[in-house]
Design brief:
about 350 residues; mainly alpha; about 40% helix; about 0% strand
Length: about 350
């Protein structure tokens, strides 16, 4: 019994730890808007304001492949006396960035994939300023691990200033325009649609036309329906989606395809009593108030409303019909102009 209770207590403690961890992560994401770890408080802005330029700390960045990172001794040239202040918080001292061996832990901030080919020297020789690639660094007050430059910045810059070096192999060791990316395996067929919707704003790799022609998407989806195009989608889902954003349907479908199908298959709302003599369709379309345009999507040539009584000759088209007829209306009022039917 005791061992059982102890095991239960252990599980409970582990569960609480997981919940606490998840809660703290969620809280941090809510505060900074990212799932990444909190930034280390290295303040570029404060250093630049004191006249410390980029090359003072990053020796060789104007000539070498890799920008030199400042060793402890370089930092202590200024901080030897500054950090002696007992009132100075630890996060503003050089010691904050040192590991157990007393060496600066810069690798977490500068680590780049081995796949990437990049040299600072040639860019600096062409007059490319540091802030061109390290956008906002002059105002940066905290370093975030993995905060490397985005591919979209490289591509857009190369398009305008170095088009000859805007090929895959210019920056990548192995990836080419014909190389299948590693993430295009397993469940990519299910995920690629969401990635394409997120677009290049989220990641340049989401920009399908880097490798694919637009026609290839269309030709594929004409033979392979998206996964959400299941039975529910056919019966009801697609109508709801189309009413929210019809343009998404037009990515693959043309309006004549919708018309052709609905001439043979009535919408699920068109059940018994929809048409004469009850005419429940009026209440379906006009209550709550909305325009009658939804009917004309299919019923462009329906003559029913054309038989409405004409407007009396002595009525001025500028009259407010509802000021007199509101109480005597025999049909739902959807707010449309009465002259649409009573001409």
């Amino acid at each position: 019994m005791r061992s059982s209770r102890a095991l239960t207590a252990l599980y409970s403690a582990a569960l609480l730890a997981v919940v606490a961890s998840a809660s703290s992560c969620s809280l941090w994401r809510a505060i900074v808007g990212t799932s990444g770890p909190p930034p280390r408080p290295f303040n570029h802005l404060a250093h630049l304001e004191r006249g410390v330029d980029c090359l003072s700390c990053h020796e060789g960045a104007d000539k070498l492949d890799v920008a030199g990172m400042p060793p402890k001794d370089m930092c202590m040239t200024c901080h030897e006396d500054i950090d002696k202040d007992p009132q100075r918080p630890l996060e503003k001292k050089v010691a904050w960035f040192l590991d157990e061996k007393g060496e600066a832990k810069w690798s977490a901030f500068t680590k780049q994939s081995k796949e990437i080919r990049f040299s600072h020297g040639p860019h600096a020789a062409k007059g490319v300023a540091c802030a061109t690639c390290h956008e906002g660094i002059e105002k940066n007050t905290g370093l975030r691990p993995g905060s490397i430059q985005r591919m979209s910045s490289c591509v857009s810059c190369h398009e305008s200033t170095a088009s000859a070096y805007n090929r895959c192999e210019s920056c990548h060791s192995e990836i080419t325009a014909t190389t299948r990316p590693p993430n295009h395996d397993r469940i990519w067929k299910r995920l690629h649609g969401q990635a394409s919707k997120m677009g290049a704003e989220a990641a340049t790799a989401n920009q399908c036309n880097l490798c694919h022609e637009k026609d290839s998407c269309v030709s594929c989806h004409q033979t392979q329906a998206p996964e959400n195009h299941n039975s529910f989608w056919r019966i009801k889902g697609h109508g709801t989606a189309a009413s929210i954003d019809r343009s998404r349907c037009q990515t693959c479908h043309t309006s004549d395809g919708c018309d052709r199908c609905h001439q043979e298959t009535a919408p699920v709302s068109h059940t018994a009593g929809w048409d004469c003599p009850r005419n429940r369709h009026c209440n379906g379309c006009h209550v709550p108030l909305q325009t009658s345009g939804s009917c004309f999507v299919c019923h462009k040539s329906t003559p029913g409303h054309e038989t409405a009584p004409p407007m009396p000759a002595w009525h001025n088209p500028g009259f407010n019909c509802r000021s007199c007829h509101a109480a005597s209306l025999k049909h739902p009022d959807n707010g449309d102009s009465c002259l649409s039917c009573h001409r």
